[in-house]
Structure formats: structure tokens, C-alpha cells
Amino acid sequence: MSANPAKLAEQIGNEGVAWSALLDTLSREENALVTGQADALPPLAAVKLDQLNAVSALARSRLDALRHAGCTPDAPGMASWLAQHGTPTVRANWQSLCKLEDEARACNLRIGKLIDMRLSATRQSLNVLMQAAVGRNGLYDPSGQSVSSRISQPLTAA
């Protein structure tokens, strides 16, 4: 158990800051989906990816520090480390980090549902457009060749 407790405490604080930034980005993404601001999504996706990478790196670093401190790299290991080295501030930071992670997961689930709703609406709109195109004989196959939408009828059909 030669790990420096102050270092791990600092890592927990840094990880909390990173989760907070990620949650802010997820909230902005959710808002953009709710308000239909599709142009705002690509830049947010790039920021979100960077933040996810940062959060993952910080979590891996924390788990490595737990191992180095002689604790298992999981929730019981963290509880053991907190019991031995946790100050009230570090415990509060850990609880805050866990809450932020839960909020980010919940926000991500809402975003997934919003995307699914938007995708469903887009599919419905495409179906309407396809039906309108069928009526006008204006369909194209995947290679770009025009496709007749009318069923062939015998020449003697009235």
C-alpha cells in the first residue's frame, strides 16, 4: 500500500471535473435534439468524443492507482480505500463523481430515445416522399437508374 493517498484523492477530483464537463456537453446535445437544432450536433459529437476519452483515461488511472494501493479496482476496492484514506472532502468528491456518472448515463439514455424518435419521424417523412414519388413515376434504384413505379399491364388492358 505504497500509493500516495493525496494523488488518488486528486485523481478523484479531476475525474469529477471531467464527468461534469461531459454531462454539460450531453445536456447541450439533448437540448439540441429537443429543439431540432441538427447543425449543433456534429460539433458537440466531436467534443463529446474527446471528453469520453478523457473520462476513460482518468477512470483507468484511478483503477491503476487503486491496484497500486493494494485495493481491488472496483467499487468494493474504492470503498476499502476510502475507509482507510478518505477524508470528508474526498468522500464527498467520490459521491459527487458517482452521481455525475449516473446523471450522464441517464442523459445518454434520453439522447438515445430522442435520436430514435427523430429517426422514426425521418423514416415516416421518407415514406411519404417515396409514396409521392411513386405516384409521379420518379423513383431511382441504388445505382441511380430510374425505376418505373407502374406495374406493367398488358396492352389490351383497359
Task: Please describe what this structure looks like.
The chain has 158 residues and is mainly α. It has a domain at 5-111: Methane Monooxygenase Hydroxylase, Chain G, domain 1 (Up-down Bundle). Helices cover 75% and strands 3% of the residues. It has four helices and two strands. A two-stranded antiparallel ribbon has the order 1-2. Helix 1 (5-35) runs antiparallel to helix 2 (41-68) and helix 1 (5-35) runs parallel beside helix 4 (88-135). The longest helix has 48 residues, at 88-135. The chain is elongated, with a radius of gyration of 26 Å. It starts with a helix and ends in an 11-residue tail after the last strand. The model has no long low-confidence stretch (mean pLDDT 87).
Question: What are the key terms here?
Answer:
Methane Monooxygenase Hydroxylase, Chain G, domain 1, mainly alpha, 158 residues, two-stranded antiparallel ribbon, 4 helices
Stretches where pLDDT falls below 50 for ≥5 residues?
none
Principal-axis shape:
elongated
What is the distance, rounded to the nearest whole angstrom, between the alpha carbons of the first and last residues?
Answer: 92 Å
Kindly state the percentage of residues in helix.
Answer: over 70%
| Number of beta-strand segments | 2
DSSP helical segment count: 4
The Cα radius of gyration reads 26 Å
Give the strand line-up of the largest sheet.
Answer: 1-2
Major sheet size, sense and barrel closure: 2 strands, antiparallel
For the record, the CATH class of the domain at 5-111 is Mainly Alpha
What is the helix/strand order? HHHHEE
- Identify the CATH homologous superfamily of the domain at 5-111: FlgN-like
- What structural class results from the helix and strand content? mainly alpha
CATH architecture term of the domain at 5-111: Up-down Bundle
What is CATH's topology name of the domain at 5-111? Answer: Methane Monooxygenase Hydroxylase, Chain G, domain 1
Q: Whole-number average pLDDT?
A: 87
